[in-house]
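Incident review: delayed structure delivery

Summary: a single-chain prediction request sat in the queue longer than the usual turnaround. Root cause was a stuck worker, restarted by the on-call engineer. No data loss occurred. The affected request and its eventual output are reproduced below so the record is complete for anyone auditing the incident later.

Affected input:
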Amino acid sequence: MIELVTATVLEQRGILRKSTAYKMAAQGKLPHYVVGCHDRGVRFRIEEVLAALRRPAVSEKAEQE
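Output delivered after worker restart:
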């Protein structure tokens, strides 16, 4: 079974601030799942978040080349 957690749980565990988690998810930089009616709930898998945070950052300029 896959355990999905809220951004609040990520913040409580000291992984990432809640606002940063939502912002990175909206930018497509953090894997996330949308659950519930009317797409009102965003959830994360802790393992996927940690893996995404370990990846080296790539600047937008480098992506265009």
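Verification: The first strand starts at residue 33 and ends at 35.
Action items: add queue-age alerting; document worker restart procedure.
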